[in-house]
Specification:
235 residues; mainly alpha
């Protein structure tokens, strides 16, 4: 006997299966727990219809403090509680349990569907829960993407301002260095010019002293030597 939950069983049809286009084969698959859907409608079409029923984009009513906590994201997106607690996450845990994970795919599906039927849960509601969670994750991804883009814009502008300030400081300091260098150059030129005049003055003085001393005490450009007095007349 075909259970009602088989009508909403969702999986991806295999295009290489020659029985997919045969209504009798689809009926046989449905009766045997296969992947086809009611009235010959493909599983992909059923998935699209179920997903289309979840049209509301998630609105995050509270900030998410830990982006790595998906449960916190789901709570912020106000995903309604799953019927009887059978969320897609619970189904995922069931499929990974030690009692089911090693079973063939068809048996896994049948086992989960039997559990859902016993709990009075429609597989459609589970798929809708999965779609809501996926939309919440996609929505929060966009939130984070916008936040990263806005942060990048702000920091790029801030970096440009900092760089402009750095360039101004560097330009000012370079100007100071240049001014200092030019001041030293001017002072050296002044000093070298003065020294030349000094040597000329010393030469004039030296020439004037020379007739009166045996050893000229006047330096002409060198270090200053002590003045040696001219010896007086012998008595």
């Amino acid at each position: 006997m075909t259970k009602k939950w088989y009508n909403y069983f969702v999986s991806v049809d295999d295009p290489n299966n020659p029985g997919q286009g045969d209504p009798s084969a689809q009926q046989g698959n449905s009766a045997g727990g296969g992947s086809s859907t009611r009235g010959g409608m493909s599983a992909a079409q059923t998935v699209a219809e179920i997903a289309s029923n979840v049209t509301t984009e998630p609105k995050f009513s509270a900030p998410v403090s830990n982006a790595n906590s998906f449960d916190e994201i789901y709570q912020a997106a106000e995903i309604p509680p799953a019927p009887q607690g059978y969320s897609i996450m619970k189904i995922a845990d069931m499929l990974q349990s030690e009692h089911i994970r090693t079973l063939p795919g068809d048996v896994k599906r049948s086992t989960v569907l039997v559990a859902l039927d016993a709990a009075g849960v429609d597989i459609k509601d589970v798929i809708q829960d999965a779609v809501r969670r996926d939309k919440a994750l996609d929505g929060y991804e966009r939130v984070q993407e916008r936040a990263v883009a806005e942060l990048e814009t702000r920091k790029t502008q801030e970096n440009a301002q900092i760089q402009a300030e750095i360039d101004k400081v560097v330009a000012d300091q370079k100007a100071k260095i240049q001014a200092n260098t030019e001041e030293v150059t001017r002072e050296k030129e002044r000093f070298y010019g003065w020294r030349l005049k000094k040597q000329q003055e010393e030469k004039k003085i030296s020439d004037a002293v020379a007739p009166f001393v045996s050893e000229n005490p006047i330096t002409t450009g060198g270090s200053i030597a002590p003045v040696a007095p001219k010896p007086g007349p012998k008595s």
